[in-house]
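Re: the request from the purification team.
They wanted to know what the chain is likely to look like in 3D before they choose a buffer screen. I agreed to run a prediction and write the result into the notebook, where they can find it.
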Amino acid sequence: MTVTAGISKVARHFQITVPKYVRESMDLHEGDMVNFEVRDGMVVFVPVVLRNKDQAYFWTQSWQSDIRESKENFKKGNFKKFKSIKEMRKYFSAK
């Protein structure tokens, strides 16, 4: 969907002000990061979140799929409770 949300002037040092409607609808805040893309003669900016490299695995499709599956199993009551770490280790070492 395309919405004209305002006009902004390119200021000194090529800074622009993001119109209030855009800030609010995109939930943008001071300090947020955005990625600029050039598409068919237009500039599009997309909010991004930077992550530590050592946490990148968490955001892979397979990891997120496993998390969703775990949450569904938990909602269904498909889990086992253990009284201790020792009991849990014994259970998993028997498998």
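For the purification team: The beta strands are 33-39, 42-48.
Please add any questions underneath this entry.
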